[in-house]
Design goal:
Layout: H1 2-27, E1 35-41, H2 48-57, E2 62-69, H3 84-98, E3 107-109, H4 125-134, E4 143-147, H5 152-160, E5 169-173, H6 193-197, H7 199-208, E6 212-216, H8 218-221, E7 225-227, H9 228-235, H10 239-258, E8 266-268, H11 273-276, E9 292-297, E10 300-301, E11 307-308, E12 315-321, H12 324-339
Parallel strand pairs: 1-2, 1-4, 2-3, 4-5, 5-6, 6-12
Antiparallel strand pairs: 7-8, 9-12, 10-11
Helix pairs in contact: 4-5, 5-7, 9-10, 10-12
Length: about 350
């Protein structure tokens, strides 16, 4: 009898810790946030920002701290109104509703206009959001501000509170090609589209700030080509979000034809690298290890929106090649899983 009691106790002593470990493992998710992100984008403009936002919101390694709707160039064909930032915030809110994530992340509008010059910040709830998040002392998770349009809000935030420059990394989709790295495409726009939204803000970031900057210029973001065939097979069938994103692109393709333009069968989802370079960093020694960049002295942006060499400029990353397969395959899988 005594022997049986002893054996039973030994068995319990062996089983209980293993049960506790199993329960703890079940309670913990395999993927949890390891970075913080604020996304700033012109969601009422080019619909590529809506794809990037969907991808970001479905990424479990990211704690999305805020979404900023930003303005376009005045009179832009995508949204010629004077309430572009407000409209962008409404578009982001609409998408969150479709994803059934209403209220999960604060959405604010930035300024509806650009900066008057490269030293005078604008005021907005978006600027306050960036400053408040960058100033937090209750978390060790690194902060990324990812911008897929102009730089009005981040430039204004750093001009308002220069101390935050060392507390975040700015990832920006924008700027023309560097002459020593790539040639511009045929019939290219000058200045580059995103830089031209607010040249004064770009000058504030490049010329005056000490922000850690990862730049994805035009030759890099144009690599993010989504074929129409994949839109129909990999996106459209997967839930309300897939239908919504497909309708947005197909609607744009139809409208463009009215202006006698033929964009072929691919669409540049140029803002999606914002997710690739943050959520999809390597497991150990975290970094966007499957994409390639070069370090350059940060140039000065001149009044015309071009680069002027700056020998004393801080080092910035300029991305030259992006892992488009990883980026799109991850997006397709997350969209399908979410639809289930």
């Amino acid at each position: 009898m005594v022997k049986r009691v002893i054996l039973a106790c030994l068995a319990l002593a062996f089983i209980i810790p293993h049960v506790a470990i199993a329960q703890a493992t079940a309670a913990n998710k395999p993927v949890s946030p390891r970075i913080r992100v604020i996304m700033d984008n012109d969601f009422s403009g080019d619909p590529d920002g809506l794809f990037a936002l969907t991808h970001l919101m479905l990424s479990q390694s990211v704690d999305v701290r805020g979404i900023i709707g930003s303005h376009l160039k005045a009179g832009d064909g995508f949204d010629p109104s004077k309430t572009q930032a407000d409209n962008a915030a409404k578009k982001a809110t609409e998408l969150l509703s479709i994803l059934k994530m209403t209220g999960r992340v604060p959405v604010v509008a930035g300024s509806n206009t650009g900066m008057l010059n490269d030293t005078t910040p604008v005021k907005s709830a978006a600027v306050d959001m960036i400053i408040n998040e960058a100033s937090r002392t209750d978390t060790q998770l690194p902060l990324y501000v990812v911008c897929g349009a102009g730089l009005t809000e981040i430039a204004s935030a750093v001009l308002t509170n220069p101390a935050i420059a060392g507390k975040l990394t700015l990832v920006w989709i924008g700027g023309p090609e560097y002459a020593d790295l790539a040639l511009p495409p045929p019939n290219y726009s000058n200045p580059e589209y995103n830089l031209n939204i607010d040249i004064a803000a770009a000058r504030a970031v490049f010329n005056h700030s000490q922000l850690r900057l990862w730049q994805v210029p035009r030759n890099a973001y144009r690599q993010a080509l989504l074929p129409y065939s994949q839109l129909l097979l990999k996106i459209k069938p997967h839930g309300e979000a897939g239908k919504y994103l497909t309708n947005v692109i197909e609607g744009l393709m139809t409208r463009i034809q009215q202006w006698h333009l033929n964009i072929g069968e691919t669409y540049v989802l140029g803002d999606s690298p914002l997710v690739l370079l943050t959520a999809l960093q390597s497991s150990f020694e975290a970094d966007p290890s499957s994409s390639e960049y070069t370090l350059k002295n940060c140039p000065k942006i001149n009044a015309q929106g071009g680069y002027d060499y700056n020998a004393g400029g801080r080092n910035i990353r300029v991305y030259t090649r992006l892992d488009i397969n990883l980026m799109f395959n991850d997006f397709f899988a997350k969209l399908e899983l979410n639809a289930r």
